[in-house]
Every structure is written in C-alpha cells, then in structure tokens.
Amino acid sequence: MSNCEYLGDLQLDQDGNVRIRPVAIAPLPERKYRPVAVPISVAQRIEAGEAFVTPVVGDSMQPVILDNDTLVVSTVREPRNGDIVVVHTTQPHPTFDELCGYVWRYRCRRSGMFLTKDNSRYGRAPRPVRREEILGVVMRVVHRQFRDLHENDVAVQKIVALHRSCKWGRPPADVGFHRESKLAELRTILQIPDSELIAGRLPWGLLRATAIGDHPHAKIKAGDILTVEVSPESRVGLAVIVRNRTGETRIGTMERDGLETTAPGEFYLNVGDRRVALTRKRGQVHLWWSIAIVRRVQRHVEARDGQQQVVHVSGYTTRDGKVIAPVVRSMPSNANQKWKPRSGSSRRELTSFNLTSKVARDDDEKA
Fold first, then answer.
1. Which of 274, 298, 322 lies at the terminal end of a domain, its last residue?
2. Do 255 and 276 fall into the same domain?
3. Strand pairing partners for 292?
4. CA–CA separation, 350 vs 324, rounded Å?
5. Of 23, 28, 103, 89, which is closest to residue 61 (Cα–Cα)?
6. Could you give the number of structural domains in the chain?
7. What is the pLDDT of residue 365?
8. Same domain for 220 and 252?
9. Does the N-terminal peptide bond of residue 63 adopt cis geometry, omega within 30 degrees of 0?
C-alpha cells in the first residue's frame, strides 16, 4: 500500500460512463537555487559556450538523477546510445511553469532514435525524437547540496485531497516527512548528510547517504554513496536494509527458498558466508522488517590531489531556443572577495542571473 497513489474521485459523465476526476494540483511556488561548484575544466567549457548548467525538478530519472540535482550539459557533444539528454521545449509546464527542457535517456537503434525514462513508474513506452530537439548531452550530475521545502508539494496536495474526499479530517502535521524514528534507524547503518535533511527532518523521496561499514556480500564498501528509497516494500533480488526487534540492522540481497516451486519457503538475507532468516512459517511470521531499498551504489574514490580546484556557477539562460553560457564565478577565498570578468573577455556582455529563471524537468510533459 505504500506505493499506492491517489489519482482522484470517481464520477459519472453525461453519458453515464464512470470516469476519474483528477486531483487539482495548484501551481508550485517558485524554487530558489544556489550557485553550484564545478571543476575548473568544466567551468572553462561553460565559459566557452560549449556547456551550461541547469537544476532539475522531478523524479522520472531516478535513481541516477534526483530532484534538485544540477546537470552539466554539453551543447557540442553528439548523443550516443545510453546517454542522458535534455530535450528542448517551448511550452510552459502546468505545474512547474517555464522550463528549458525535459530529461530523457537517449536510445539509438536501426529503427531510429527514441527516448525512455529510467523510473519505471513513468512507463517503458519509447518516444521518438529528432536530433534538432536535443538541447544537449548530460556530461556530469552534480549531487544536490540541499533539499527544497516544496519538493513533495504534489504528493502532499494529493494526500490532503484524499483526506478531504474521504472526510478523514486534517492529515498529520508532518506529512511530507518521515518520522524521527525512521531517520534514527537509518543512521545506525548510513551516514546521512545535512544536505538530505530539512531542518533536521528527512523528506519523502530517494536520498543519498554514505555506507558506514563494509558489506562485501552486497558489494558495498565503507564510504560508498548509496541512493536509498525509504519503503517497507521489498521483493526477491533487491538489495534491502532490514531491521529486527532488537535494533540490529543489516544490508543484503533478499532471496527465498523454493521460489520456483508451488510451495515456496522462507525469505532470507544473503550475507555472503551465511543466510539470515527473515521469516518463518513460510513467510507468514516476520523476524526482520524491510525499512529501505538500495536503488544505486556509487563507488567511493579517493581524491588524488586532496583539494580539487572548483569554481561557482551562478546559472544559465536561453535566447530564442539557443543556450547562452552562464556566468562563471571563481570560488572566493573570503566573503568580501567578488568575481570580476577577465579583461577582453568575449563574454563580458553576459550579466549575472539566477537559477530560478528556468529549470529542466525530468518528468514527462503533461497534456
């Protein structure tokens, strides 16, 4: 039931057919974005007009791209099969207003070029695409440095509408956030950065956290970045985080005895050298409970030079469908130092602007 979504109320139309009256979603408040830090090499390509940066809203490209991530998009590289691309749009979104484009996975076959989504919730049907529609190829995903307060506004509005329709009264005051006890459970095995919290609370949606210890059976090492979905749902073959009544927490792959037979046995966690029984009485009695699913693992790589030179990028803009390079700001050594354009720069006509002007939506365009 945790994956159920309230779509609307049933009603009869004039012909007597039963239809769904969808939930009316109010336009979301304008988001505020902050400058992001990118390596010097990337900043040079941005300043040369060969790339631009854009924040992302939506969840259709999870678990690779999360809401509020920032994309570095190349405008000169040709898309190849499997690349993530930004597709140009000229129409405003009914919920997110003005956007620069939509994020898709590019596929190229003998039959032609088409686009797909990474998140299975948005279907697997491919969408045909022309080369001139592709605004650029994503060459880097900058992990978000903060969560937005309005990130789950659509889901919250649906919960409020469901309570109103069923006359359940007001929804809980903490709707949109996980309980403190759930955050405490996750922290026993994961290091959750402040950038994934809002005022110390964990919002709904996928999050990135760092593994505290080694879990060789799950091919996870300490320091690896895990993209985690907080959910009690689980199934065989998934890497899950489970917890028992004594507070012990483990990460492993869920499996089940006799799955291909007519009478499957117990669920268990494969931890390499042994198995941890998750249930008894053929799955009817739970000994462990799933608290989260590991959707993606990114290997931790030690920095060679210790401190990588980076610069702050303030945003981007478009003009008649053409991307104009953003202003690149050198990272100040103190709060009073300000960036000044180089003398004779060919991009001195570009002035500072904010990321709030337009964003890339990683969701399907609504009708």
1. 298
2. yes
3. 241
4. 9
5. 103
6. 2
7. 39
8. yes
9. yes
- Quickly count helices (H) and strands (E) in the chain: 3, 25
**pTM, entire model:** 0.78
Please, is 174 exposed, middle or buried when counting C-beta atoms within 10 Å of its C-beta (0-12, 13-18, 19+)?
exposed
Of 298, 317, 351, which residue sits at a domain end? 298
162 and 39, same domain (yes or no): yes
Q: Which residue intervals of the chain are DSSP H helices?
A: 40-47, 153-166, 180-186
Please identify every stretch of the chain with a pLDDT value under 50, giving residue numbers as ranges. Answer: 1-2, 303-307, 316-359, 364-367
Q: CA 93 to CA 95: how far, in whole Å?
A: 5
Please tell me whether residues 172 and 201 are part of one structural domain: no
Residue type at position 148: D
pLDDT of amino acid 313: 60
Instruction: Indicate the SS3 state at residue 121.
Output: helix
Identify whether the C-beta of residue 86 lies closer than 8 Å to the C-beta of residue 140: no
Contact 287, 279 (CB under 8 A): yes
Instruction: List the one residue out of 150, 122, 146 whose CA is nearest residue 26.
Output: 150
Q: Which pLDDT does position 320 carry in this prediction?
A: 45
CATH number at residue 189: 2.10.109.10
Closest to 67 in 3D by CA, of 182, 152, 170: 152
Q: Are residues 162 and 193 in the same domain?
A: no
Calculate ∠ Cα 102-108-114, nearest 5°: 40
Residues 350 and 257 in one domain: no
Task: Identify whether residues 231 and 312 lie together within a single domain.
Answer: no
Look up the domain containing 212 and give its range: 178-298
